[in-house]
Amino acid sequence: MSMGIKSCVAVFSVGLALFAQAEDQPVSVNVTGIQSGTGAVLESPNIVIFYVDDLGWQDVPLNDLGDPCPYETPNLVKLAEEGMSFSQAYASAPSCSPSRAGIITGQHPAKIGMTHVYLGAINKARSNAQYMAPYLDVHLDLDLLTMADAMKQNGYKTGHVGKWHVGLTAAQYGFDFVDHDRGFHRGMGDRTKDFATATDRRYPLSKEKYPPVSAKHPDGISYPYDQVTESALDFMEASKEGPFYLNLWHWMVHWPVLTRNGELLEYYCDRMDYPFPPESGDMTRAGQQNPYFGAMVTSIDWSLGRVVDYLKKTDDPRHPGKKLIETTYIFFSSDNGGAEKRKDEIISDNYPLKFGKTRAEEGGIRVPMVVTGPGISSGSRFDGMVSQLDYFPTILKLTGGQIGSEYKKQLSGLDISPVLAGQSQTVVDAAGTERQSLFWHFPHSSPDHMQSAIRQGDFKLYKKYASGSYELYRLYQNAERCDLEENIDLANDPEYTLVVQRMAADLNASLEANNARGPYLNPDYSNKKAISAAIVDSTFQQSERQARLRLDSNGPAVREAYVMYRCKPGSLEKKPAARGGKKMDQDAALYDVKLPAVISADGTVVSAQIPDGIPAYCFILIDANNFQIYSDVQASNSGL
């Protein structure tokens, strides 16, 4: 990572008051977007990305297959009725951080080297593991253009509320207003009874009543105060005089599975035939029968309703006679597929989709998605493949935003605004070529999880790293559901040999084009078939601040080498440097990120210059046999 564009950016205040006083004024921008319902082209529409954590494709009633979804989301259903829903929408990864990084940068997680959530963690693999995951930098590369950067350059106020999880804070990546508070999704002492009250100091119940209604509560129920929702509403109110871009990214419905809303939990206990309050312990009924999870899903829907209600009631100062809802695009989705289980607790069920979060199968990457806004027909639906990587180029088109051609070339997604406008039934690139495929790369976790995948038309192919094999499934046939459950592996069927060969070649080409990293061979594997590079000497010359490794010349040469600055010498298992917060050390961005090291011509010596003030360092090596080797963390300041 080079420290360029943003390395010296000051930490922005997360206070709304300071945001409201910001000196940067929106610039006049000539834009071309899709037409509004009246036929006029809307200038600089607002953008809201409402992002949920771990909400599965089957956790809402938009794509019901099999038994109806028991979780009530009336506001999301209404949003879909007013806009366009997508039956084959995909996150760019099966876990949180990479999907978020994909939306923020518009680039594939494999391309930017953020493929899972364990940022800055150095963990050696066990001796019984053949493969190990690549090291992931502790934060997103500060030199990448983000959507917030682009929107600011085009005259927008930018805000991020809620979960971030790509390192540092959103303030370092182009956002004017930042509030990373968890809202009402925090651990509680006893989830069966420690509910919010009207006089709760932190989570007072609302005086207003909201759905669901029931015989016990015919006027609806109250909801606890949620800072995530309230901060989003405050940001929109403070920004309505000019165009705004808002990320409202909830921490729910991620674990812990709980709710502070006693009335809402009681409602789901009654519906699912549980006593109220529930008995202590795990919820272990199969399927979608967890009342805590149901309450979480409906709480997210309540938050969505608050946002939409604000937009519907508030005049747009820039467009007299219009409400903000008429000049705002809302993108609703989830960061990955649903989490089905945690230890003994059954959270939800993604069936008929296979598996869930942290898996590249359909249950881990297919997500609910709705887009509403000017020019989008009510109740419309698109059944083609779309990706959250499409958000960046689509939002640029909808807002008329301009970025440099060098940045446009880096975007991994496609502009889907013609689909939103009803002008196209296919997603096409700038040359008019229809989208052929999407791919995923997840070199992490257990051997079964370590895989890459590609979707082309009706088929889905998996590259399984542990076994060195491929699996092929036919999800659809003639536009009808075929093997959505991914139960019938066709890879060894002679009829599909050419399909496997073609898709494998395309997947491998995509991995190479995006510089996909890992998984790597584990040098500590007890049954390894090849030898790995071995470090025989490590030195640090204090006067010249030069770190140096010498490797065994009888082993494989090093083909990639990186140095990484650490806070202190010692075990590789030490926690990484501070990842940021409201008060973040400016130097935190220097630590726990890979920087290129120098490799000698014969690949047996690795060296790097260590700046003054850096207390410790280590090297990460990739050798010619594809082993990943960590050096010990060494002191680079005297006295440590």
What do these coordinates show?
There is one protein chain. This protein is of the alpha+beta class. The chain is built from 13 helices and 28 strands. Strands 1, 2, 4, 5, 6, 7, 10, 11 and 12 form a 9-stranded mixed sheet that branches. Helix 7 packs across helix 8. The chain is globular and about 80 Å long. The chain starts with 15 loop residues before the first helix and ends in a 5-residue tail after the last strand.
Essential attributes:
globular, 640 residues, 20% strand, alpha+beta
Mean pLDDT: 92
Q: Tell me the helix content.
A: 10-25%
Structural class per helix/strand content?
alpha+beta
Q: What is the β-strand count?
A: 28
Strand % is 15-25%
Rg from alpha-carbon coordinates: 25 Å
Global outline? globular
Our measurement of the CA-to-CA distance between the termini, rounded to an integer number of angstroms, reads: 26 Å
Helical segment count: 13
Low-confidence stretches: 1-5, 7-32, 573-584
The main β sheet shows up as: 9 strands, mixed
Summarize the structure.
By secondary structure, this protein is of the alpha+beta class. The chain is built from 13 helices and 28 strands.
Ordered list of secondary-structure elements with their pairings:
Blueprint (H helix, E strand, L loop, with lengths): L15 H5 L25 E7 L21 H9 L1 E7 L5 H10 L3 H4 L18 E2 L14 H7 L3 E6 L14 E3 L47 H13 L4 E6 L12 H10 L19 H23 L14 E7 L6 E2 L2 E2 L15 H4 E2 L1 E4 L7 E8 L3 H9 L5 H4 L8 H4 L16 E6 L8 E6 L2 E6 L4 E6 L1 E2 L2 E2 L15 H17 L6 E2 L13 E7 L4 E6 L6 E9 L28 E2 L1 E2 L5 E5 L6 E8 L4 E3 L3 E2 L5
Helix pairs in contact: 2-8, 7-8
